[in-house]
Known about the structure:
alpha/beta, Rossmann fold, seven-stranded mixed sheet, three-stranded antiparallel sheet, 20% strand, globular, binds S-adenosylmethionine
Amino acid sequence: MEITAETEHIEIRLLLEAIYLKYGYDFRSYAEASISRRIKRNMRLNGCPHISELQHRILHDARAFQQLMTDLSVSVTEMFRNPDFYQSLRQQIVPGLLQIPFVKIWCAGCASGEEVYSLAILLKEEGVTQQLQIYATDINESALQIAEKGIYPLDKVKEYTSNYHRINGRGDFVDYYTALYDNAVMRSGLKRNITFAHHNMVTDGSFGEMNLILCRNVMIYFNRDLQNRVFQLFCDSLIPGGFLCLGSRETIQYANCANQFDPVNVHEKIYRKKFPCPGL
Length: 280
Ligand SMILES: C[S@@+](CC[C@H](N)C(=O)[O-])C[C@H]1O[C@@H](n2cnc3c(N)ncnc32)[C@H](O)[C@@H]1O
Protein backbone atom coordinates (compact mmCIF):
# COMPACT_ATOMS: atom_id res chain seq x y z
CA MET A 1 0.00 0.00 0.00
CA GLU A 2 1.31 3.43 -1.04
CA ILE A 3 1.75 5.83 1.90
CA THR A 4 1.19 9.44 0.90
CA ALA A 5 3.23 12.31 2.32
CA GLU A 6 0.09 13.51 4.10
CA THR A 7 -0.45 10.13 5.81
CA GLU A 8 3.21 9.94 6.77
CA HIS A 9 2.98 13.43 8.28
CA ILE A 10 -0.03 12.30 10.36
CA GLU A 11 1.75 9.12 11.48
CA ILE A 12 4.83 11.08 12.55
CA ARG A 13 2.69 13.51 14.53
CA LEU A 14 0.89 10.63 16.23
CA LEU A 15 4.20 8.96 17.07
CA LEU A 16 5.62 12.18 18.59
CA GLU A 17 2.39 12.70 20.52
CA ALA A 18 2.63 9.13 21.85
CA ILE A 19 6.25 9.73 22.96
CA TYR A 20 5.19 12.90 24.73
CA LEU A 21 2.19 11.35 26.49
CA LYS A 22 3.99 8.18 27.54
CA TYR A 23 7.52 9.43 28.33
CA GLY A 24 7.20 13.21 28.63
CA TYR A 25 9.82 13.95 25.93
CA ASP A 26 8.55 16.62 23.60
CA PHE A 27 9.86 16.28 20.05
CA ARG A 28 6.63 17.71 18.59
CA SER A 29 8.25 21.01 17.60
CA TYR A 30 11.47 19.62 16.19
CA ALA A 31 12.06 20.29 12.49
CA GLU A 32 10.08 17.58 10.71
CA ALA A 33 12.48 16.80 7.86
CA SER A 34 15.24 15.84 10.28
CA ILE A 35 12.91 13.96 12.65
CA SER A 36 11.42 12.04 9.74
CA ARG A 37 14.90 10.98 8.49
CA ARG A 38 15.82 9.73 11.95
CA ILE A 39 12.57 7.83 12.45
CA LYS A 40 13.06 6.09 9.11
CA ARG A 41 16.64 5.19 9.99
CA ASN A 42 15.46 3.69 13.28
CA MET A 43 12.77 1.71 11.41
CA ARG A 44 15.30 0.36 8.89
CA LEU A 45 17.74 -0.73 11.61
CA ASN A 46 14.99 -2.42 13.61
CA GLY A 47 13.15 -3.99 10.69
CA CYS A 48 10.00 -2.04 11.41
CA PRO A 49 7.91 -1.56 8.25
CA HIS A 50 5.42 1.10 9.40
CA ILE A 51 5.50 4.18 11.62
CA SER A 52 2.31 2.97 13.31
CA GLU A 53 4.10 -0.25 14.24
CA LEU A 54 7.01 1.73 15.66
CA GLN A 55 4.48 3.67 17.71
CA HIS A 56 3.10 0.40 19.10
CA ARG A 57 6.62 -0.82 19.93
CA ILE A 58 7.77 2.28 21.76
CA LEU A 59 4.55 2.41 23.77
CA HIS A 60 5.06 -1.16 24.98
CA ASP A 61 8.82 -1.49 25.13
CA ALA A 62 10.90 1.12 27.00
CA ARG A 63 14.11 -0.20 25.39
CA ALA A 64 12.70 0.43 21.92
CA PHE A 65 11.90 3.95 23.08
CA GLN A 66 15.45 4.47 24.43
CA GLN A 67 16.86 3.40 21.07
CA LEU A 68 14.55 5.77 19.20
CA MET A 69 15.34 8.52 21.68
CA THR A 70 19.06 8.10 20.97
CA ASP A 71 18.38 8.30 17.24
CA LEU A 72 16.15 11.37 17.57
CA SER A 73 18.57 13.35 19.67
CA VAL A 74 21.58 13.40 17.29
CA SER A 75 24.59 13.62 19.57
CA VAL A 76 27.34 14.15 16.97
CA THR A 77 30.08 16.28 18.52
CA GLU A 78 33.85 16.67 18.82
CA MET A 79 36.48 18.47 20.88
CA PHE A 80 37.16 22.07 19.89
CA ARG A 81 34.48 21.80 17.19
CA ASN A 82 34.96 24.80 14.86
CA PRO A 83 38.33 25.87 16.31
CA ASP A 84 37.83 29.49 15.21
CA PHE A 85 34.90 29.71 17.62
CA TYR A 86 37.20 28.81 20.54
CA GLN A 87 39.69 31.45 19.41
CA SER A 88 36.88 34.03 19.54
CA LEU A 89 35.76 32.75 22.92
CA ARG A 90 39.30 33.22 24.19
CA GLN A 91 39.66 36.71 22.75
CA GLN A 92 36.19 38.19 23.15
CA ILE A 93 34.63 36.54 26.19
CA VAL A 94 37.36 35.24 28.50
CA PRO A 95 38.81 38.70 29.36
CA GLY A 96 35.40 39.71 30.75
CA LEU A 97 35.04 36.46 32.70
CA LEU A 98 38.39 37.10 34.37
CA GLN A 99 36.87 40.22 35.97
CA ILE A 100 33.99 38.35 37.60
CA PRO A 101 34.44 36.81 41.07
CA PHE A 102 32.04 33.89 40.49
CA VAL A 103 31.53 32.62 36.95
CA LYS A 104 28.49 30.56 35.97
CA ILE A 105 28.33 28.81 32.60
CA TRP A 106 25.68 26.61 31.04
CA CYS A 107 26.61 24.21 28.27
CA ALA A 108 23.15 23.24 27.02
CA GLY A 109 22.95 20.16 24.79
CA CYS A 110 26.45 19.02 25.75
CA ALA A 111 25.95 15.55 24.20
CA SER A 112 28.79 13.21 25.25
CA GLY A 113 30.78 16.04 26.80
CA GLU A 114 33.53 16.83 24.29
CA GLU A 115 32.38 20.47 24.13
CA VAL A 116 32.40 21.01 27.89
CA TYR A 117 35.87 19.45 28.28
CA SER A 118 37.11 21.72 25.48
CA LEU A 119 35.69 24.68 27.35
CA ALA A 120 37.19 23.53 30.67
CA ILE A 121 40.63 23.20 29.05
CA LEU A 122 40.43 26.66 27.50
CA LEU A 123 39.28 28.29 30.75
CA LYS A 124 42.04 26.54 32.71
CA GLU A 125 44.68 27.74 30.26
CA GLU A 126 43.36 31.30 30.39
CA GLY A 127 43.39 31.34 34.19
CA VAL A 128 39.63 31.41 34.79
CA THR A 129 40.29 29.55 37.99
CA GLN A 130 38.35 31.71 40.42
CA GLN A 131 35.01 30.31 41.54
CA LEU A 132 33.70 28.60 38.43
CA GLN A 133 30.59 26.51 37.98
CA ILE A 134 29.77 24.89 34.66
CA TYR A 135 26.44 23.12 34.17
CA ALA A 136 26.56 20.59 31.33
CA THR A 137 23.10 19.35 30.40
CA ASP A 138 21.40 17.16 27.84
CA ILE A 139 18.26 15.06 27.39
CA ASN A 140 20.14 12.02 26.15
CA GLU A 141 20.98 9.90 29.21
CA SER A 142 23.45 7.62 27.47
CA ALA A 143 25.36 10.60 26.03
CA LEU A 144 25.39 12.20 29.50
CA GLN A 145 26.84 9.04 31.04
CA ILE A 146 29.74 9.18 28.58
CA ALA A 147 30.16 12.88 29.39
CA GLU A 148 30.38 12.21 33.11
CA LYS A 149 32.97 9.50 32.61
CA GLY A 150 34.97 11.59 30.13
CA ILE A 151 36.25 8.53 28.29
CA TYR A 152 36.68 8.77 24.52
CA PRO A 153 38.10 6.47 21.83
CA LEU A 154 41.83 6.99 21.46
CA ASP A 155 41.51 7.01 17.69
CA LYS A 156 39.71 10.38 17.90
CA VAL A 157 42.62 11.95 19.75
CA LYS A 158 44.61 12.73 16.61
CA GLU A 159 41.80 14.92 15.30
CA TYR A 160 41.25 16.52 18.73
CA THR A 161 44.96 17.25 19.09
CA SER A 162 44.94 18.93 15.70
CA ASN A 163 41.88 21.02 16.71
CA TYR A 164 43.67 21.92 19.96
CA HIS A 165 46.62 23.24 17.94
CA ARG A 166 44.24 25.22 15.75
CA ILE A 167 42.85 27.05 18.80
CA ASN A 168 46.46 27.87 19.76
CA GLY A 169 46.33 25.70 22.87
CA ARG A 170 48.96 26.84 25.32
CA GLY A 171 50.18 23.39 26.30
CA ASP A 172 49.99 19.84 24.98
CA PHE A 173 46.66 18.12 24.53
CA VAL A 174 48.23 14.92 25.88
CA ASP A 175 48.46 16.62 29.30
CA TYR A 176 44.68 16.54 29.60
CA TYR A 177 44.09 12.81 29.30
CA THR A 178 45.51 9.45 30.26
CA ALA A 179 45.66 6.71 27.63
CA LEU A 180 44.08 3.50 28.87
CA TYR A 181 43.94 0.63 26.37
CA ASP A 182 41.99 2.05 23.41
CA ASN A 183 40.65 5.03 25.31
CA ALA A 184 41.60 8.51 26.38
CA VAL A 185 40.41 9.22 29.92
CA MET A 186 40.06 12.94 30.58
CA ARG A 187 41.95 14.17 33.66
CA SER A 188 39.62 14.30 36.66
CA GLY A 189 40.74 17.86 37.55
CA LEU A 190 38.88 19.10 34.46
CA LYS A 191 35.60 17.82 35.93
CA ARG A 192 36.05 19.61 39.25
CA ASN A 193 33.86 22.56 38.28
CA ILE A 194 31.41 20.72 36.05
CA THR A 195 27.96 19.51 37.11
CA PHE A 196 26.42 17.09 34.61
CA ALA A 197 22.63 17.02 34.69
CA HIS A 198 19.63 15.89 32.74
CA HIS A 199 17.72 18.92 31.46
CA ASN A 200 15.18 19.24 28.68
CA MET A 201 15.17 22.68 27.09
CA VAL A 202 11.66 22.11 25.77
CA THR A 203 9.98 21.29 29.05
CA ASP A 204 12.30 22.29 31.91
CA GLY A 205 12.90 25.70 33.44
CA SER A 206 15.68 28.26 33.25
CA PHE A 207 19.04 28.22 35.02
CA GLY A 208 19.58 31.49 36.88
CA GLU A 209 22.27 34.14 36.60
CA MET A 210 24.44 32.66 33.88
CA ASN A 211 27.42 34.64 32.57
CA LEU A 212 27.76 32.47 29.49
CA ILE A 213 25.57 29.94 27.71
CA LEU A 214 26.82 27.65 24.97
CA CYS A 215 24.05 25.98 22.99
CA ARG A 216 25.70 24.93 19.80
CA ASN A 217 24.26 22.72 17.06
CA VAL A 218 21.04 22.01 18.94
CA MET A 219 18.58 24.68 17.73
CA ILE A 220 19.13 23.58 14.17
CA TYR A 221 16.83 20.63 14.94
CA PHE A 222 14.03 22.86 16.32
CA ASN A 223 11.26 24.58 14.38
CA ARG A 224 10.83 28.36 14.63
CA ASP A 225 8.30 28.25 17.51
CA LEU A 226 10.50 26.05 19.62
CA GLN A 227 13.57 28.14 18.82
CA ASN A 228 11.67 31.18 20.10
CA ARG A 229 10.78 29.44 23.35
CA VAL A 230 14.32 28.25 23.93
CA PHE A 231 15.86 31.64 23.10
CA GLN A 232 13.53 33.15 25.71
CA LEU A 233 14.70 30.51 28.19
CA PHE A 234 18.30 31.55 27.55
CA CYS A 235 17.42 35.24 27.76
CA ASP A 236 15.82 34.59 31.16
CA SER A 237 18.83 32.55 32.30
CA LEU A 238 21.51 35.12 31.39
CA ILE A 239 22.54 38.10 33.48
CA PRO A 240 22.59 41.43 31.59
CA GLY A 241 25.89 41.46 29.71
CA GLY A 242 25.96 37.63 29.64
CA PHE A 243 26.99 35.87 26.42
CA LEU A 244 25.12 33.37 24.25
CA CYS A 245 27.03 31.18 21.77
CA LEU A 246 25.29 29.23 19.01
CA GLY A 247 26.44 26.79 16.34
CA SER A 248 27.77 27.95 12.99
CA ARG A 249 24.44 27.34 11.18
CA GLU A 250 22.28 28.94 13.87
CA THR A 251 21.26 32.53 14.54
CA ILE A 252 19.20 34.53 17.00
CA GLN A 253 18.46 37.08 14.29
CA TYR A 254 14.85 35.98 13.67
CA ALA A 255 13.89 35.22 17.28
CA ASN A 256 11.25 37.26 19.11
CA CYS A 257 13.83 38.28 21.71
CA ALA A 258 16.56 39.18 19.16
CA ASN A 259 16.31 42.85 20.15
CA GLN A 260 17.45 41.95 23.65
CA PHE A 261 20.84 40.86 22.33
CA ASP A 262 23.76 42.61 20.63
CA PRO A 263 25.91 40.72 18.16
CA VAL A 264 29.49 40.30 19.38
CA ASN A 265 30.81 38.13 16.57
CA VAL A 266 28.28 37.47 13.82
CA HIS A 267 30.48 34.93 12.07
CA GLU A 268 31.06 32.84 15.18
CA LYS A 269 27.46 33.35 16.38
CA ILE A 270 28.33 35.02 19.66
CA TYR A 271 25.71 37.37 21.16
CA ARG A 272 25.51 39.43 24.32
CA LYS A 273 22.39 40.16 26.37
CA LYS A 274 21.83 43.90 26.54
CA PHE A 275 21.96 45.85 29.77
CA PRO A 276 18.59 47.41 30.70
CA CYS A 277 18.24 51.01 29.51
CA PRO A 278 18.51 53.48 32.40
CA GLY A 279 15.12 54.92 33.28
CA LEU A 280 13.12 51.95 31.94
C1 LIG B 1 24.45 17.68 17.68
S1 LIG B 1 24.58 17.59 19.43
C2 LIG B 1 25.51 19.04 19.81
C3 LIG B 1 26.58 18.79 20.82
C4 LIG B 1 27.48 19.98 21.14
N1 LIG B 1 26.73 21.10 21.63
C5 LIG B 1 28.27 20.38 19.93
O1 LIG B 1 28.01 21.43 19.34
O2 LIG B 1 29.19 19.64 19.55
C6 LIG B 1 22.92 18.05 19.93
C7 LIG B 1 22.61 17.66 21.37
O3 LIG B 1 21.43 18.35 21.77
C8 LIG B 1 20.70 17.50 22.62
N2 LIG B 1 19.31 17.93 22.66
C9 LIG B 1 18.37 17.85 21.69
N3 LIG B 1 17.18 18.29 22.13
C10 LIG B 1 17.39 18.69 23.43
C11 LIG B 1 16.53 19.22 24.42
N4 LIG B 1 15.25 19.43 24.18
N5 LIG B 1 17.06 19.51 25.63
C12 LIG B 1 18.38 19.27 25.88
N6 LIG B 1 19.24 18.75 24.99
C13 LIG B 1 18.74 18.46 23.77
C14 LIG B 1 20.87 16.13 21.99
O4 LIG B 1 20.57 15.09 22.90
C15 LIG B 1 22.31 16.18 21.54
O5 LIG B 1 23.15 15.59 22.51
